[in-house]
Amino acid sequence: MKFNNLHSCHLGPEISPEQFIPEHFFLFLLKGSMTSYDGYKHYNMKPGDYCIARKNHLVRYTKYKDEGQFEKVIIAFDEIFLKKFLERHPYHAEPTDHKDSFLFIEEDKLINNFVQSLEPYYNGTEKLDDIFVDIKREELLMILLKNNPDLKNIFFNFNIPHKIDLEKFMNHNYKFNISMERFAFMTGRSLSTFKREFKAIFNTSPGKWLMNRRLQEAHFLLNRENKKPTDIYIDLGFEDLSHFSYVFKKEFGISPSELKNVKKVDSKLI
Fold first, then answer.
1. R_g over Cα of the chain
2. Residues 119 and 23 in one domain
3. Residues 217 and 187 both lie in one domain
4. Shared-domain flag, residues 18 and 82
């Protein structure tokens, strides 16, 4: 499919910009490419790919523009919408051990026709009102379930995360830039319980531990792996380079760039 005058199209509630997926959403990439990482696996998307991003998963995105453009169609399936859908179309969800954060959907005539029907809305010639948004979301959901009935076990599982090993989870996911409330939720705890148990395990607060863990990893990558500060700060959960440089120097007495220069001098002396 080829489209002209592309613009991104979003149907449903806004998706959080943080590294956490709060609601399921359907993603169709129009232009550009994207790689995502959930702490276990990398996912690559190119124009024309369809996928379902699963709620309650941590994920980090890297977007690549094509001729200065990155365009997509996102259709959110929030819990309120899904429960209303079940009132009209009863489905029974069963437990699933599927752990992937992104489920890629095979190209299909019904899906293609549906995306084609949205072209007036993402090329800017028409606008969708709220009622029609829900009609289009319901249409897509019915197509997805018709093509893959097992998706009911993904969409209609409204259980919250169960209590898991806190130490193991944090040591694996400390690089993700999310709030303490999210960390608590994903480990199956209230915020107060999370903080209390965290203190008992790590003998410090979550905020201090995360900062120290990220800075120690940054020092290792700069000093031992010869990485550049610009290559690592986002992957380690820092929002901007200046803040990363400030806290790194405060911790180690030397800025990340100065550490790199010292490494260069040392390597020449050897």
1. 22
2. yes
3. yes
4. yes
